Amino acid sequence: MKYKKKIKATALAAAFSLSIGACTLPAATAEAFDVGSAIGAVLTVGVQYAFAQKQINYINTKGRNEYMDQVKDQYGVNNTPEANQMLTDVMTRLSDSISVTNPTIKDKPYNYFVNNQKSFNAFCTLGHNLSVNIGLFDKLNYNEDEIAFVVAHELGHGEKNHPAKGVNRALPLELVTALYASQNDNTISYLGAVLAGSIGTAKLVTKPMESEADALAFDYAVGASYNPGAGAAVWQRVLEKIDTGKDNVVTDLFNDHPTNIKRRDKYNAKVTAWSQGVVKVNKDTGMITLRDKDFIVPAETSTMSSKERAYLVAGNLSAVYHNNKRPVDNVWTNGNQLKVGAQYIMDLNNEPNPTAVTEKLKKIL
What we know:
The protein is mainly alpha-helical. It has 14 helices and nine strands. A hairpin with a 6-residue loop joins β4 (279-281) and β5 (288-290). The N and C termini lie far apart (58 Å). Mean pLDDT is 83; it is low at 1-41 and 246-255.
């Protein structure tokens, strides 16, 4: 959507981005204080906030497609076929997973697209509108299990209505006043432009919201049959390849979030719980244990470290033990794929002694 008054929208965006947390009225002198004037000021501000709330509710519901057009204008639509097909597959599977506990997702399905941003990021904003940066696909090497966990996290925000709660919490008085003063046919366009321009820059989501979204992501992704270890694997990869401390390429998606190490470790603990306490990964060495017996430290590959692989292998093993703490299926190989029954465990191509790995799993399974 194009806006007739871009200068005004830009000014509102600047006010929104710079004044969060600083929304205080100038203090009057004691001599000038007047109770009637103060009450009038409070009532005026209340009316202004009610007006802004009405506009936000509209964007979050009936105006969500209009807002999605604004978001697309802001971030650009990327048409890379592989990324778009993968996002469609992920969204379809995750939406089906969510619908098991929340059938209303079918009434308000998510809008989504791949955007042109090169950084490691994704976002879910008002109106069940979601986007994934093309940079995230690249940095995760198009690993669908890992991408699914990131998208599931964003869907967790959407399902709990975190975007609207965050916007309402952070709206600065300057923006509310400007919106109220500009009551005309373009008000929704102004607010939409401000919010679209503020995604990923304004701190609209709290740490409790982030933790809630992480927990939901595990349930949604595993419910969609993605690898239970992929959540821990994502954060291991972030620690190793993205958030190196040399440059801050893990951008505003992770502002005010739990630390990357804590997120990895929480997901690692979920893998152990999913396996009924059988499967564990040593975060320092990458050793996978089954009932506290050493199994393997997976070999690194050209695209993945040993530790990142360890969480993915552990996730596959946790699926074996989830329903049966003492599985009866056979350990076998299909070419260079190690399996337990129908469950894929790991690729043996990079292991120096594939036969030894297979025999060890048979022994301690």
